[in-house]
UniProtKB/TrEMBL annotation:
Residues 52-256 form the Elp3/MiaA/NifB-like radical SAM core domain. CDD domains: Radical_SAM (cd01335). Belongs to the radical SAM superfamily. Lipoyl synthase family. It comes from Candidatus Heimdallarchaeum endolithica. This is Lipoyl synthase.
Length: 289
């Protein structure tokens, strides 16, 4: 595997650890997980300092073994019926205006956890009617009823990441399917024009520019509204090596192409992750009919 040295421009700035500990303490008190911690996100300091977090629901054990992820794989515990209530309590204490909720993949559940996502959405909406609710969902194996259940709960944004270019699926995320991921995003728009759709891709794994641009075109074909592109960074437990540190100029090029293709909002930079600074795209909701 290539021995790629981390460039000088890929550095996380200084973070305030006391603010991080305060958010971590709240999560522990409410028996909640954050994807920020479980997936070793490089932006954890910035998000926690701003008292924001992406809630990881349905446990912290995944039924899939994606090579890019640091979340444990195995047999998950049963769903916690109190989790929707705890999410609302955390949103209140953090005074959130934009809540992001994601989950591990739960292939062990008949509906993939769709009803749980829907219940969390309803509870959050009951707490605060104008709260922006963003759900980052697994592919639900492409099951129509599961995806409809989530849509009918009326979140503001449904995010589902394609993760990598199709050629790298077997290597990076072998239990996923590129066409199913596109189907999920397409279904959301077919059932509700009011919900914004969002997807993301990692680079630095050996893809070509042409392959990345084709993914962007495929996402626009299913009317995806928001795009995120970030650098793959190897988690401690992963054997999936970084092939390239993509230069910031290339990220800027992808951003320009994304807007030219018709995306309503594009976040493209080395440390961009699907839910980092998610609130920046909230202005789009005011334009939706």
């Amino acid at each position: 595997m290539p021995n790629v040295r981390k460039p000088e421009w890929l550095r996380i700035g200084k973070v305030q650890r006391e603010e991080i500990r305060q958010v971590q303490k709240l999560m522990r008190e409410l028996h909640l997980h954050t994807v920020c911690e479980e997936s070793m996100c490089p932006n954890i300091g910035k998000c926690f300092v701003n008292k924001t977090a992406t809630f990881l629901v349905m446990g912290n054990v995944c039924t899939r073994n994606c090579k890019f992820c640091d979340i444990a794989t195995g047999r998950p515990q049963p769903l916690d019926p109190m989790e929707p209530k705890h999410i609302v309590e955390a949103a209140k204490k953090l005074n959130l205006e934009h809540v992001v909720v994601t989950s591990v993949t739960r292939d062990d559940l008949t509906d993939g956890g769709a009803a749980h996502f829907a219940e969390i959405t309803r509870k959050l909406r009951e707490y605060k009617e104008d709260l922006i609710i963003e759900l980052l969902i697994p592919d639900m194996k492409g099951k129509v009823e599961s995806i409809k259940t989530i849509i009918e709960a009326k979140p503001n944004i449904i995010n589902h990441n394609v993760e990598v270019v199709p050629r790298l699926y077997k290597k990076v995320t072998p239990q996923a399917n590129y066409e199913i991921s596109l189907k999920v995003l397409k279904m959301v728009k077919e059932y509700s024009k009011k919900i914004l759709t969002k997807s993301g891709i990692m680079v630095g794994l050996g893809e070509t520019k042409e392959e990345v641009i084709q993914v962007l075109k495929d996402l626009r074909k299913v009317d995806c509204d928001i795009l995120t592109i970030g650098q793959y960074l190897k988690p401690p437990s992963s054997n999936l090596e970084i092939e390239e540190y993509v230069h910031p100029d290339t990220f800027k090029e992808y951003e320009k192409i994304g807007y030219e293709l018709g995306f309503k909002f594009v976040a493209s930079a080395p440390f961009v992750r699907s839910s980092f600074n998610a609130k920046e795209a909230d202005f789009l909701l005011a334009t939706e009919v």
